[in-house]
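Q&A log
Question type: sequence-to-structure
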Amino acid sequence: PDDLTVTDNLTGLIWTKNTNPGGYKLWQEALDYIKELNNSAYMGHSDWRMPNRNELESLVNKQQSNQATWLGTQGFTNTQATYYWSSSSYAVDTSIAWTVFMNQGDVSTIEKSNDNNLWPVRGGQGGMPVSSLSPAVKNFGSVTTGTTSAGQTFSLSSPGQSTLVVSGITLSGG
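Response status: OK
Response body:
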């Protein structure tokens, strides 16, 4: 059933191609629906879940005026230009959850007693690309300003076919 899913090569997340397979649900009903999908091994898998806020927001392309329309050009079907639940509760009030509005792509909070869309996902690592740095910490020893230390080697890697993007490196000392 791979043709019924879309894999995000950046995050490793595997989304249902149909972006609203269960219709509108209250937040708890959405969690229960995910449990049903897993109990029935939906599309041959039992590790479906409701995406967290970061995972859901990773689908937003702010350069597009309508996310639902744009997502349709990316291989998804049935995308509603309305709110989609995330599994992330609002820290200040757990009767509220984070949502993403698949029209403009806005992230906001809504009471869990409202009906919203559910978009099942599996795989990935919290919606963020996985990379590693080896060694994770490197002690250069004592270096005096105006001098240089011995050369050091670091290894950055990215799994799969993801492109590794380094947005900054911080060197600090005391």
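Response note: Residues 3 and 140 are 50 Å apart (CA to CA).
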